[in-house]
Design goal:
mainly alpha; 5 helices
Length: 139
Amino acid sequence: MTQLRRCLSFDGKPEIVHPAAGMAHATEILDWEQLDMMADGYTPDFVEIYHEFLEQTPSLLEALDAYLAAGDLAKTCELAHKIKGSSANFGFVGVTTPLVQLESTARDTGTLTGGSALVQAARRNFLTIREEVHAQRGI
């Protein structure tokens, strides 16, 4: 299994790096190897689960925004952890990384400082990745 690659910048335009390009780009937001490994030939069962992930994640990110706005540390951390885990399974590094930062900040400082920007980055990256996977894999 490949290690999830780190997304080091959330400010610029995200860059999708394909497996043939290797690890040369620090702003990678999608781990194609992880996605392809999970897909196991892009079986109908995988496609169904993947589409459920695509359908549920936007509303989960909206709920995460609501918990942040309410200042609910516990619910924010719980939901960020859930989204982070499912995103990691599919190789959506650009979603996983900002949510790791959100969890770390909340755990280390007991605050949600910078949380909204991190959720915005996760949402923006999710949309970019979703489009790229559709364009490259047809799902």
